[in-house]
Amino acid sequence: MPSSCPECGSSNVVEDDLYSQKQWVCEDCGSLVSEGVFTTTLSDEQQSRTIPYYISTEVTKRPCANLVKGLGRVRALCRILRLSSDMEMGAVSLFERAYNHPTFIHVRLLKKEVLGGCCVLITCRQKNCPITMGTISSLLDADSALIGMVYQDLIKALSIEPTTTSISDMLESYCYGYKLSPGEVSEVFAEPTRRLVERSAALVELAADTWLVTGRHPLPILMACVYVAWQSLKPMDRMKCTLNKFCQISRLSKEVCAERKDTVQKRISELRHVLCKLGRELPWLRGDTVEPSTVARLVDDILKHRQTLMLKALRHYEQEAEPDLSDCTATDEADQLPITDPAAPSQPLLTSKLDQKDQLSGKDMDILKTSGQSELKCGDKAVEESVPPAGQEHWGKRHLFLPPSVRTEKRPRVDAPELTVTGYEEISDSEIEAYIRSPEEVRRYLAVKRKLKDDED
Amino acid sequence: MEPVEQSNDVALDIIITNVVSVFRTRCHLNLRTIGLEGNNVIYKPEVGKVLMKLRKPRITASIWSSGKIICTGATSEDEAKLGARRLARCLQKIGFKVRFSDFKVVNVLAVCSMPFQIRLIEFTKNNRPIASYEPEIHPAASYRIKNLRATVQVFSTGNITVTGPNVQNVALAVEYIYPLLLECQKTLV
């Protein structure tokens, strides 16, 4: 506190505050001797802390602007997907909870946008009306990897138990994205949605049974099934129609169309090959060739008699693969009930494999052993797979329908033989010398570097 | 790795593809010197480490100036130890006062092939909270075994990849998961 006035020299200095600013004024001459700092700073605050800009002193807290925007986005998504009002409310409340959770409050805006989509996704799944992540990704125009990441973080943060959705559940809502009702397109191309859904559902089930669905993105498969189903409902007129034309005719909305058409083409060809394998077993074709490009006209019959054709195809395949064991399997199968699982590799397979490893005897012994075992098992209403007589044949060759990546499996690498290493061996100097440059080499290396640098300059 | 024999006489080949280990040299390392005098080294000044590759046990090591080193690429725990020791000798020869200490195997990655396909949806349904399967994110179902601290990724083709803190845990994890997979190899019809 100042004691004397610099102007007149009197010691009569009093404290006289101007509003909230401290001031010391000389009583005799009236001059301002000194004043306190007006604004709140570190020196004035008792706790010596400045108030940061993001902590507001508002009395009534307004909701965060991004939260409001996010809620609007969630509602818009629900409206586009035509969800019911309680599903919309569920998604909105989930988004509020997630937004204020410490995992998500400080993330970037892009993630918050994706968070809205993930909340809609989870709500749909919980109410048994699932949508694909591909749909969300195209509606939000976001990277599907980011959506996957945010989805998994969300499930962990809010401890939601994820429901496994099967592809058939997604089919019905998916089909509504195709505008093919009789009023909208010409008669040749029109198809009532109900028939389309029925036919596609049967194709999706067939694809699931023949390992085309497991582990893959559902959207391309759904698109392929709908396309093949649509073609098969009026094959003569529609067989010439390509996939792109089909997308144009049905005025496919962005969220229903798969990102990459080549994946869809691959699925279409896989599906057609499966249909061909079954179509070949149709007795009234009497050995006619069945081509993938024309199989559309046979789809109706194939789907009607799916189960029988599948059994026939599998038995046929087994018989072709195992000609010397065909007597055994043929006689035993005659006694069997129709419901069997011929493609079941299990215990006898594994034990006989072990037997092969143990004994060094020839082919004959193995055939006897395996045929003996399969005869035993046949009596138990289960036709076991006949094991190949000898050799390291890949187990996949015994199955007609396989996950496609098994067929194209690479041969296991035969690396350098495993060294028997203990970890405590002696390390000789010469080995280590190989990893160190000699002084001469170091000099040469530096010289080359210098030269390269000079050349650059 | 040798086939794992189980009580019901099944021989499965578990192939260890990667062993990650760490150790310390207890001394500061000058990365520029290592970059200059080492033969198979890549110096990354932007990250602050040196990558050194050994030939004999095929190993890549990340060397930090604090003296902490991470070795990856070995195919067994013993190989990892040998490689780490070789690396420490190398650094000693270059001229640093290296003391090989705190060697620890941190992660083991192995693959195994089942001779049957696996229905992933059924597998996930049977093992609901522990297994998770999102085909749109990753084609495999992932299964975490908490007490072994191991994660198994199951593919529909029957291949599985197992990661765990050491080789024994990995073998136990395969034994643990085998019966669960066996009951999910439901076939057609």
Describe the structure.
The complex is a heterodimer of chains A (457) and B (189). Chain A has 457 residues and is mainly alpha-helical. In chain A, a hairpin with a 7-residue loop joins strand 1 and strand 2. With 189 residues, chain B is of the alpha+beta class. Chain B has two domains: 87 residues, TATA-Binding Protein (2-Layer Sandwich), CATH 3.30.310.10; 71 residues, TATA-Binding Protein. The radius of gyration of chain B is 20 Å and the shape is elongated. Chain B starts with a strand and ends in a 7-residue tail after the last helix. The relative contact order of chain B is 0.18. The N terminus of chain B is likely disordered. Classes of the chains: A mainly alpha (457), B alpha+beta (189). At the A-B interface, helix 6, helix 14, helix 16, helix 19 and helix 20 of A face helix 2 and helix 3 of B.
Largest sheet descriptor of chain B: 10 strands, antiparallel
Low-pLDDT sequence parts of chain A: 326-391
What is the CATH first-level class name of the largest domain in chain B? Alpha Beta
Full CATH superfamily name of the largest domain in chain B: TATA-Binding Protein
What is the share of helical residues of chain B?
A: 25-40%
Structural class of chain A: mainly alpha
When the domains of chain B are counted, the total is: 2
What's the order of the H and E elements of chain B? EEEHEEEEHEHEEEEH
In short, what is this structure?
With 457 residues, chain A is mostly helical. Chain A has helices at 65-80, 85-99, 102-105, 109-126, 133-140, 144-157, 167-175, 193-209, 218-233, 235-238, 243-249, 261-279, 299-304, 306-321, 326-334, 347-358, 363-378, 404-407, 429-433, 439-456, and strands at residues 13-15, 23-26, 32-35.
